[in-house]
Write a structure and sequence with these properties.
By secondary structure, this protein is α/β, with parallel strands linked by helices. 29% of the residues lie in helices and 20% in strands. The model is unreliable at 24-28 and 469-502 (pLDDT under 50).
């Protein structure tokens, strides 16, 4: 080793501790260079002469004696972290390290109490010119976290690439980010109402966010809603987020409507939406945003799923490498079955109408206890929910919903028979039996479609492990592909009984 030139040694050092651990948050990995400097004098000098090449950094934690550490080592960049910060732990060492604001490059603190957060924020009112990553997360027991003032980071973050807050109010955040031209990730979770900022404030950042790849906006309550009197008309020209790949939103529909009105995201690959329960889900501008986003517009599978406290529709691509994951899930917090069905009917008709690329529609449940009335109002809502799926060829129904949907389809007579699901060819039912309420109700619909020249087949649905493989949602379903039901049903078909593969 003594005969190796410095450049070769540096290549070896870089491979052993730099290239593999450059983005690690594990303290021993981040400080593996300290082992090298204790080998010999030559290595020590070589390492200290190459701080940028080897990306040398010091890690400060609540248990690190910050004063001793800062006095012993050269003035390398500082990483301040604790994941999570012990509730009983003091913040003295963290505060001392934050006092070296011109050296701090990353801050990652989670599990903060209200008082700990206040102590951490105090030294962070100065400029942090080298800061690239900032993550601050409260613990679950905090009630009244301090509001981050506009003087945070001296009001400027020129090198910031990642910014994440969880449960911490920062209403002045848009002003800070006006200086963050290199921002790649902006994740804001559980935003309290005291930290509310308007969609217009986010839109004003778009000229700065040319490198943004991930945007998460998660509001704590439906209080965070735009003022109806200040809502703007659609612009004549929208701004582009050219690199946005991932967008997650939780809040009220009006906020998201106002936000997407002003933007295009041509590279968007995943959009996850969760709405608070509300009366009106009229979202025409959001529908326009989805339709002008190439990847979202090309989705061809829809999965409507009912849970105890939420209802959702997820759009997927049959050509995806992850066909069991939604590319566009839209969920609503709601418990009452009739409200769930009404809300989902609004979502499907305002966001997915028309949506000509959907070939397969799945309607499933994950209730702990299924309670449905199967009345006239419910029948109407089912028909309204199905209305926008004009291109669907295959309808997949869980056995619990099949009788109710069959009763709704039974109401379609004469000229209305193809108004709902005009392209339908097959109905797949989980646990389909040879006789029962479903067969009695669906028989009239099948016979009417046959007479109209648009025949359909009723088949038994065996869960396809490739198309519908999420075990947490559908563990109660079988794990084979969709096939004709049973020999008994085939026998019924031959004898001409309505409701069987006509």
């Amino acid at each position: 080793m003594d005969r190796l030139p410095d450049e070769i040694l540096l290549e070896i050092f870089d491979f052993s501790m730099g290239s593999r651990y450059r983005h690690s948050l594990i303290k021993p990995s981040l400080e593996s260079w300290q082992t090298l400097v204790h080998v010999c004098r030559r290595w020590r000098i070589l390492v200290f002469q190459s701080p940028r090449r080897l990306d040398l950094r010091l890690v400060c934690t609540p248990k690190t004696s910050a004063r001793d550490r800062l006095d012993v080592w050269p003035a390398f960049p500082l990483i301040i972290q604790s994941t999570p910060l012990p509730f009983s732990s003091g913040t003295d060492n963290i505060v001392v390290a934050l006092g070296q604001s011109n050296r701090v490059c990353r801050v990652n603190l989670s599990g903060l109490s209200d008082s700990q957060l206040g102590q951490v924020l105090a030294p962070m009112q100065a400029p942090f010119p080298e800061l690239t990553d900032l993550r601050l997360f409260l613990n679950n027991e905090t009630q009244t976290p301090p509001i981050i003032p506009d003087s945070f980071l001296g009001g400027s973050a020129p090198r910031l690439q990642t910014f994440e807050l969880d449960g911490i109010p920062f209403p002045g955040l848009p002003k800070l980010l006006l200086s963050s031209y290199h921002l790649v990730t902006l994740h804001l979770y559980d935003i309290p109402h005291s930290g509310y900022f308007s969609p217009e404030a986010i839109v004003a950042l778009i000229p700065v966010l040319s490198s943004l790849e991930g945007l998460h906006l998660d509001f704590q309550s439906p209080q965070s809603c735009p003022d109806p009197e200040t809502r703007s008309l659609p612009p004549s020209k929208r701004s582009i987020l050219p690199t946005l790949y991932d967008f997650i939103f939780k809040g009220v529909a009006e906020y998201l409507e106002d936000l997407v009105t002003f933007i295009d995201a041509p590279q968007l690959n995943n959009m996850d939406i969760a709405f608070f329960n509300q009366i009106d889900f009229n979202c025409p501008r959001l529908a326009q945003f989805i339709n002008r986003t190439p990847t979202l517009r090309a989705l061809d599978n829809a999965h409507v799923q009912f849970y105890d406290s939420t209802v959702s529709v997820g759009l997927r691509s049959s050509t995806s490498n992850y066909p069991h994951l939604d590319d566009l899930p839209i969920g609503i917090s709601c418990r009452e079955p009739d409200w769930q069905l009404s809300s989902m009917e609004q979502i499907c008709n305002t966001l997915l109408h028309p949506f000509p690329s959907i070939d397969d529609l799945y309607i499933k449940h994950r209730y702990s206890e299924l309670v449905w009335k199967d009345d006239a109002i419910e029948n109407t809502l089912w028909l309204q929910l199905l209305l926008p799926f004009t291109a669907v060829k295959n309808l997949y129904l869980s056995k619990e919903f099949a009788p109710g949907i069959a009763a709704a389809l039974k109401e379609l007579v004469e000229g209305r028979i193809t108004v709902v699901l005009p392209s339908l060819q097959n109905i797949f039912v989980q646990g389909l039996e040879a006789s029962g309420p479903f067969q009695e109700k669906i028989g009239h619909f099948v016979a009417a479609r046959q007479l109209s020249g648009h025949p359909i087949s009723v088949l038994k649905w065996h869960k396809d492990s490739h198309i519908d493989s999420e075990s947490d949602m559908d563990s109660d379903m079988e794990s084979e592909s969709a096939t004709p039901a049973t020999s008994e049903i085939e026998s019924d078909m031959e004898s001409g009984i309505p409701g069987r593969n006509l």
